[in-house]
Amino acid sequence: MTVLLALVLISAGLNYYFSDTYQLSFFQNGFESKVAIVVSLAFLLVVSIINVITSILFKGAPKSFHNPKVAWVVTAVLCGTILFFTLWVYPLAEKASYINKVENALVQSEEQQADEEITVLFMSSEKECFRTSSSNCNNDTYKNAFFLKNNLDTQKEVQVRIRALDSDENELKIIESDIMTLEAGELKLVETEESSDLESIWSRTSFETDKRVRSYESLFRYREAE
User: How far apart are CA 143 and CA 34, in angstroms?
Assistant: First the structure.
């Protein structure tokens, strides 16, 4: 119980820091919260059915073999744990990963700037899979994160065209970003038609490819913001 309380307090402090420093929402959006709740309820339903069937089949069995009360307590604890991690811990980890990309992008933009009006930055190409060597991950696509930085002194509307390449310089995809409004000096994740508005900003990616992106070519255009 003490460990859980410490985890809640530490994660709450980190969430507050991320929200205050990087202007990120304290909680994930409503859609993602609903998904987390549905997953937890589905797990609760399945385990509850198993508990009921087991209680009927082994009615009168010694409690050392099957104890219904203990089974329901364990079920409640497991469902609460799943809900806690999907609603709170996992989003916090995603926020930390997103902030790390933002910080690296800022550093990279300073090294790359060289009098560019707009800097295009490629930050990551990865699968959201716990074991990338597992056969279960073979069909997963690579999620790619690109950033744009406005190096000008005024707000601009920017659009970028990206040609993603693999390690052999073969073309994987050509895609155009949405028209994005960037304040002076602002850095933003490149969003395209493949970026989901249903996800929180820290969960979004620019686009997906079947193979890992290793390099890219880009062409941007900008205009005064309306």
Answer: 23
